Request: fold
Amino acid sequence: QLLLQESGPGLVKPSETLSLTCTVSGGSISSSSYSWGWIRQPPGKGLEWIGSIYYSGSTYYNPSLKSRVSISVDTSKNQFSLKLSSVTAADTAVYYCARPATTGVIDGFTTWGQGTMVTVSS
Amino acid sequence: QSALTQPASVSGSPGQSITISCTGTSSDVGGYNYVSWYQQHPGKAPKLMIYEVSNRPSGVSNRFSGSKSGNMASLTISGLQAEDEADYYCSSYTSSNTQVFGSGTKVTVL
Reply:
């Protein structure tokens, strides 16, 4: 059974960089052509796709966040990571990592991590 | 990119059918058969209910069905049950090689 687990600091200061890691278990991040995505949800608000990556390194980002986002993959650790720079209070949210149901697409996330709350505050 | 448009709320009585709409453009919903629907209960991660417009993942009740016409996709819940009360989100692949979620719909079982 594929499991995803987010990890990282729960509190980040304004203007600093938010860094999160998603550890994949029950399957190899590089064994097939699945994409791996990050999604966030501010308190009381809707879902926002941040970006996705294939194990080959191809990345796709939300245009509204593109200038501040970087997603990378570490196949040796079976992990993929998110970095979001110059954070503000508006970046306070639950951050999820997820994988789609089918290969070769960046939509239709069927496997989700439990989510991790990140608060931006001094 | 703008969020797909969903009604803020939809309600129905147990046993009834309800439909949630998701309106986009020809650059997303109307242009591709990559529309998904998610159910989210409070404090929980979203659960995929429909992908690629009308496909149900294994384990999802056949009371949930999806369709699309032009730039609008729809999720129908038939035989509404108390456990269906949740927030529902649509999403779509876009022509910019990105993904966009809908604004979300709160379903209330009366």
